[in-house]
Amino acid sequence: MAGEGPAVIFDLDGTLVDSEPNYYEAGRRVLEQYGAPGFTWEEHTRFIGIGTRETLEALRREHGIEAPVDELLAAKNRAYLELAAARTEAFPEMRRFVELLHGAGVPLAVASGSSRAAIEAVLARTGLGGPLSTRVSAEEVARGKPEPDVFLEAARRLGAAPGDCVVVEDAPPGAEAARRAGMRCIAVPYVPGTAGDPAFASAGLLFPGGQKEFDAGRAYDWVTGGN
Q: In whole angstroms, what separates CA 84 from the centre of its chain?
């Protein structure tokens, strides 16, 4: 399949689904449980696009939490899975984009900083699991975004050359990971204020207004029609 046409690799959180409120609430609960109350949404937005382990390592340092990071990770994953199973919604225009690509036979994958269990729960909840059966968690590679490992592994599993892949991302670390992987990128910033981030400058197609501006038809034409 390598070289036979495009393949599309989706980030999950904030790109396909609006899971950030669930991640924020899970993180807030865990920090409060370990003696660090008052975690705000503004603090959370600093970590959008960063893997859960790296996020917790930073918060553990900042708040002087003594519990090991693996314990915090397990607690946050438990809280998140409970929330995700109850209330995760796919962005409607992103769902349409997946359906257009799948209908045209374009190979698809999800590559996420989330845990494998979280990816499975979210795709099951939103009904997107069928077309997105190839999934890579940051748990399965050596380094998280902005390193390219998760995208390169997704390409390998799809049997696609990196240069034939298009990444769909909402956060600067993911756009940078796509650049390092040698892949084209569609950027749909989750936090509108990040649209001018230098990492998004490498994106071939940028929707500065985020999900409210994203157009599945335009993105589909860009992917299938070349640069």
A: 15
Burial class (CB in 10 A: 0-12, 13-18, 19+), 115: buried
Q: Which two tokens stand for residue 99?
A: 């359906």
Q: Which of 11, 13, 149, 170 is catalytic?
A: 11
Residue 70 annotated in active site: no
- Give pLDDT tens digits for 137-172: 999 999 999 999 999 999 999 999 999 999 999 999
Which pair of tokens denotes residue 56?
A: 């917790």
Please check whether residue 145 is in contact with residue 50, taking contact to mean a CB–CB distance below 8 angstroms. Answer: yes
Contact 145/174 with Cβ under 8 angstroms? yes
**Whole-number Å distance between alpha carbons of 81 and 30:** 13
Q: What is the pTM of this model?
A: 0.89
Distance from C-alpha of 130 to C-alpha of 144, rounded to nearest angstrom: 25
Tens digit of each residue's pLDDT (9 = 90 or more) over 69-126: 999 999 999 999 999 988 899 999 999 999 999 999 999 999 998 889 999 999 999 9
